[in-house]
Design a protein that fits this description.
about 230 residues, alpha/beta, Ribulose 1,5 Bisphosphate Carboxylase/Oxygenase, three-stranded parallel beta sheet, 8 helices, about 20% strand, globular
Length: about 230
């Protein structure tokens, strides 16, 4: 059952026309009436059902305006690289003993990075890490020798873009407290990434069918894209 606050939002936006990001940010922020710093989120519906193949998007994008979230990053590496990982800002660093802890269900982190040589051992934990979306992936930059860059990206504003089986992609572009230009920069970075993904896949027509903008406790507004993807 909808709350009184939510019903009032629906009344105000029942006849809202489709607008661009700059105009809609004003409306979405006005709807952020809860006591906490609400997240500003994008929702895409992509054209993933093709006759010859199904389009699956899975990539990462570095948001220039950051995410406003603190991400707990863990690194699995050789002892010789442990100091590099710690210096880069990793919250947890370990080798074989850490892998055993993960195997036993100890996963108090939100992002896992590892070196290529340790990935051989870590890959055996697919059933543990896979369902939680924590398995490192070389295509996403989380299996690498360059731990400094990987940890820095994960900490400073890197997000994963991935569609579900129905073609939906959900991603945050920041918080209500962010300046509009921060949110718009993040939005543009996501569109640029999706544009590249479109060029990397063989598909007919547009990749994106529809886009909506909302906040954590707000309602969705249909968003007019500023570029054809």
């Amino acid at each position: 059952m909808a709350s009184k606050r939510f019903k009032k939002l629906l009344e105000k936006t029942s006849e809202k026309s489709v607008e661009g990001i700059e105009k809609l940010l004003l409306d979405v922020k006005k709807n952020c009436t809860s006591k906490f710093d609400e997240s500003i989120d994008l929702s895409f519906q992509i054209n993933n059902k093709q006759k010859k193949n199904e389009i699956n998007i899975r990539t990462v994008v570095n948001l220039p305006g950051g995410t406003g979230k603190k991400v707990k990053v863990a690194v699995v590496c050789e002892d010789a690289k442990a100091q590099d990982a710690k210096a880069a800002g990793a919250d947890i660093v370990g080798g074989d003993e850490f892998i055993e802890k993960i195997k036993n269900g100890e996963m108090n982190f939100e992002k896992l990075i590892c070196t290529p040589s340790m990935m051989i051992k870590l890959s055996k934990l697919g059933k543990v890490l896979g369902p939680k979306g924590l398995m490192p992936n070389p295509k996403l930059g989380s299996v690498t020798e360059n731990l400094k860059t990987a940890v820095s990206d994960a900490k400073s504003g890197q997000v994963e873009i991935r569609n579900d089986k129905d073609g939906n992609i959900g991603v945050s572009i920041g918080k209500k407290s962010f300046k509009d230009d921060q949110l718009i920069k993040n939005y543009n970075a996501i569109l640029d990434t999706l544009e590249k993904e479109k060029s990397n896949n063989t598909l007919k027509g547009d990749l994106i069918k529809s886009t909506f903008l909302t906040s954590t406790m707000g309602i969705s507004y249909k968003l007019k894209l500023e570029k054809n993807i």
